[in-house]
């Protein structure tokens, strides 16, 4: 008898526990439904500048690097996978191109190349242009451009070098070379160069193509094949167009050096 009473008591206790649990369960389901329908929201970051709000992040990213002037229609073209190279059309506005040219013009000196033994700059016959370096984050417009490069390359702006403005006269060129370093001086001081973004600041009449002589794939499949100079048809070539940018990677995704990133700048001619 005592035994029976005991178990009946326990059964009542258990049913109370079950009732409480199922009520809690129902409450969570209702809360989840409200959350799901957006009727109710958890009070996380309800201030104006919610850092976890994706819309505000997207707005920040698009306002960042808005830059000078109005850019034409922007679209990306995959140029090649070996080397990894992409063309960003209308990366710079006409005003930004002119701004960079005018900023650099009074400071142009004959270009040098990095000596592969000492890592120091040296004069060279393989590169016959003139150029100058801008300081990183030099002014608002430069910062905007640098941020844009960071956004497109997925490499933080702090990892970038200062922009270099180059000027090629008729007949000047830069023979095929790698952008990655093979010397200890540079790889230890600042690390390996992973990628390069070339931005074309003016249009050219003839020649002046950036060429990848070691690119894999069908080099004659580019839509501009018929517009290329005879030299330009010796490799995968990109015709310079004001405002366009060419991003290519000197390293593969596994951080090994990519010899197919060999590239040069062909001499251009006036018609
Ligand atoms: C390369 O591309 C061009 C243009 O699309 C095509 O006519 C040609 O047959 C291709 N060559 C090869 C070897 O696939």
Automatic annotation (TrEMBL):
<dbReference type="InterPro" id="IPR006620">
    <property type="entry name" value="Pro_4_hyd_alph"/>
</dbReference>
<dbReference type="InterPro" id="IPR045054">
    <property type="entry name" value="P4HA-like"/>
</dbReference>
<dbReference type="InterPro" id="IPR044862">
    <property type="entry name" value="Pro_4_hyd_alph_FE2OG_OXY"/>
</dbReference>
<protein>
    <recommendedName>
        <fullName>Fe2OG dioxygenase domain-containing protein</fullName>
    </recommendedName>
</protein>
<keyword id="KW-0812">Transmembrane</keyword>
<feature type="domain" description="Fe2OG dioxygenase">
    <location>
        <begin position="159"/>
        <end position="271"/>
    </location>
</feature>
<keyword id="KW-0223">Dioxygenase</keyword>
<keyword id="KW-0560">Oxidoreductase</keyword>
<keyword id="KW-1133">Transmembrane helix</keyword>
<dbReference type="Pfam" id="PF13640">
    <property type="entry name" value="2OG-FeII_Oxy_3"/>
</dbReference>
<keyword id="KW-0472">Membrane</keyword>
<dbReference type="InterPro" id="IPR005123">
    <property type="entry name" value="Oxoglu/Fe-dep_dioxygenase_dom"/>
</dbReference>
<keyword id="KW-0735">Signal-anchor</keyword>
<feature type="transmembrane region" description="Helical">
    <location>
        <begin position="20"/>
        <end position="42"/>
    </location>
</feature>
<keyword id="KW-0408">Iron</keyword>
<keyword id="KW-0479">Metal-binding</keyword>
């Amino acid at each position: 008898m005592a035994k029976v009473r005991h178990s009946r008591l326990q059964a009542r206790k258990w049913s109370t526990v079950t009732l409480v649990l199922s009520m809690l369960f129902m409450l969570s389901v209702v809360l989840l439904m409200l959350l799901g329908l957006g009727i109710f929201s958890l009070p996380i970051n309800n201030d104006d500048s919610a850092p976890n709000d994706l819309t505000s992040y997207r707005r920040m990213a698009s306002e960042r690097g808005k830059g000078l002037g109005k850019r034409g229609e922007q679209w990306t073209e995959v140029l090649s996978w070996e080397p990894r190279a992409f063309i960003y059309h209308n990366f710079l506005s006409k005003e930004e191109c002119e701004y960079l040219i005018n900023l650099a013009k009074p400071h142009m000196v004959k270009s040098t190349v990095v000596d592969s033994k000492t890592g120091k700059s040296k004069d060279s016959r393989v590169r016959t242009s003139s150029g100058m370096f801008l300081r990183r984050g030099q002014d608002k417009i430069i910062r905007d451009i640098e941020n844009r490069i960071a956004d497109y390359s997925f490499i933080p702006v702090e990892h970038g070098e200062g922009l270099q403005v180059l000027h090629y006269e008729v007949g000047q060129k830069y023979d095929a070379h790698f952008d990655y370093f093979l010397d200890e001086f540079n790889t230890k001081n600042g690390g390996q160069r992973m990628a390069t973004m070339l931005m074309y600041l003016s249009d050219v009449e003839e020649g002046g193509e950036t060429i990848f002589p070691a690119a894999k794939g069908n080099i004659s499949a580019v839509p501009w094949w018929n517009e290329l100079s005879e030299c330009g048809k010796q490799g995968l070539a990109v015709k310079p167009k004001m405002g366009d940018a060419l991003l290519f990677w000197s390293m593969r995704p596994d951080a090994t050096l990519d010899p197919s990133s060999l590239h040069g700048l062909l001499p251009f001619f006036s018609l």
